Every structure is written in C-alpha cells, then in structure tokens.
Amino acid sequence: MAKVIENATFDPADNEFNKIPEGTYPAHVTSVNSTKFEDTGKSVYNLTFTVADEVKNITVPKLKTDGNGGYEEDGEQSGEFIKGKEFRLASKRSMWLNPSPEQGKGWQNKNYVNWNKSLGVEFPETEDGKIQLVEIEESDIIGKPCLVKVANEPWEYNGNSGIALKVFDVLEWKDGSTLSTEEVALKNNKEDDLPF
C-alpha cells in the first residue's frame, strides 16, 4: 500500500497553466543580433521583443486544453500574465537588408523598411520618391516601443516538433515610450551590464 509522505502536499490550483493566445501585444526591442554576409552585402537582423507592463490593461482570451492536444477559449482574463514574456521573429519573417536587390526584387527590403519605420527609424526619400535605405545599428532600435503580432509557428528540430509563438508583424505603438539602457538591461536580467 502507498505510504503517505508527511508534510508533502499538492495544491490543484498550482496546476493552472496560462497559455498565451495569439494576438497583438505592446512590447519593446530588448535584443538585436545582426549578421552581415560579406559576399553579398546582405544583413539579417534577429530581434527579441519583451512584452511591456502595459499588457495588463488589455483583455485576452483564457485558453484551456480541449482534451485532444489543442486549446479552446474559456472566457477572458487580464493580459498581465504575459508581461515580461519574450518573443522572437518567426523564421519566415526575418528582417533582411539587401542593399542591392535584383531588378524587380525590391520587395526583399519590405520588412526591413516597414518594421524599422514602426520603431521610429526615419528613411530619407530620393528625388524620384523612392526610399533611401540606411543601415541601422543596435542603438537605433534597442528599447524602442512597438506592437508585436504573435502567432503560432510550427517547428521541427532533431526529430522533435512543436509549435511556438513567434512575431509575424511589428507595428507602431504610438503611446509607447522608449526604454533606457538600464531598463533594457533589467528586462534582460543583465544587472551586471548596469553602469553602477
């Protein structure tokens, strides 16, 4: 017969798991990693976004398991539990800068231009109305506010597979404020990077 373990208990309330629903959330850019490919001149920017405290002011669907490996809506709740969560760009929605696209492939810079504009980067226009590309640096967008549209992206790696929430679009957050270097370091739990 099973033996009772003294002072060892489990509270079923601890079994609650809040699955983050797909949606659009206020966030800040908290990490920028870029790689430049010297042979082509192209650069790819991998951004990390951290959900802002203001998410507590929105209502999101509450999801519960449907018993078949999926989820279904079960009312609404405050978005506060999403605060501080990190999201990265979806693999097929990377931010590429191609300084010399082939004729007819200027669309390759679409995400780069649109997302940087959403983050407050200004691009000059040429006399013929085209947008002049600028090469951004981390300091141009780190800590910048935005709205991130997250959705499920299937993944597969080493024979394993699953679904992860990733950023598919970056939109302007007009009322958002830019985080200082210290605030970004705190969001990244990098207290060692603070200047004091």
Question: End-to-end span in angstroms?
Answer: 59 Å
Oligomer: single chain
Number of domains: 1
Count helical runs: 3
Going by helix content, strand content and strand pairing, the class is mainly beta
Roughly how many Å is the radius of gyration?
A: 21 Å
Residue ranges: pLDDT <50 for 5 or more in a row?
191-196
Q: Please report the total strand number as a whole number.
A: 8
Mean pLDDT: 89
Q: Specify the helix fraction band.
A: 10-25%
Hey, roughly how much beta strand do the residues contain? 35-45%
Q: Order of helices and strands, N to C?
A: EEEEEEHHEEH
Shape summary: elongated
Largest sheet: 6 strands, antiparallel
Overview of the structural elements:
The protein is mostly beta strands and 196 residues long. The protein has one domain (17-193). It is 10% helix and 36% strand. It has three helices and eight strands; from the N terminus they run ββββββααββα. The strands form two sheets. Strands 1, 2, 5, 6, 7 and 8 form a six-stranded antiparallel sheet that branches. A two-stranded antiparallel ribbon has the order 3-4. The N and C termini lie far apart (59 Å).
